[in-house]
Please model this.
Amino acid sequence: MQKLVVVSGIAAVLFAAAAAAAVKPETAIHYRQSVYTMIGWNFGPMVGMIKDKTPWDQADFAKRAERISQLAPQLLEGFPDGSDKGAETEAKADIWKNMDDFKAKMNDLVRESKALADIAKAGDEAKTREQFKKTAGACKSCHDKYRNEE
Amino acid sequence: MQKLVVVSGIAAVLFAAAAAAAVKPETAIHYRQSVYTMIGWNFGPMVGMIKDKTPWDQADFAKRAERISQLAPQLLEGFPDGSDKGAETEAKADIWKNMDDFKAKMNDLVRESKALADIAKAGDEAKTREQFKKTAGACKSCHDKYRNEE
Model:
């Protein structure tokens, strides 16, 4: 009985792994593009404030920074093995050849966007503007190396 | 000078309103579909656990419930006036004819998904399963009335 439970436990783990592996490349591509779309939806108005095209609104900026800090850690799972193709994607195949470096860049974004959310919430405009540059820099650093820009 | 500042302030508010209104329908449609895609990405594995197709994993379930509770309040801004068309969309035009009812249904989802995140985090599987039904019910209630299912 003990043995059966163990075997059943192993089977369950394998089944879960198989289920996770069963995500189709096009589904992962669609998912990660959705995360980027949501980040961009919030990033746009922040850039407008940073460039003084719209009035500075600390509360709105902080709300959007908080959202991006929640979205950023959800990007990486959209890049499973094999999802370099399967649908139209701007992701370069180099990502999967340099996954450790790609993960490090994703971690940079997670860290900087979390700092931005915290600083924006604290309420100092100058510090918020400064940390925004670092966050945008984390975006750019990864795009420069791993994104086929249109 | 005082007057100039006031006028300038009003101009800024008007400009911000114009900028907000300037979101193209297709951009809003693409945005809201992205939020739904992210919700679905997390909802799928939760349904797998609920239906016992994959092993129950309270921590994973709680993580996904937390994400959905953060995403749900971001849906409504994807339905601005005029975004009933402009790109392929499953949203029925009835949404904009019954915006108060649509908002109420969105609030139901926000409330139930927040409760699900809290209950799942607390760790009781039976209570989590029970609250999942209510959350899924909030999804269905809105889809039945306002979504053109494929």
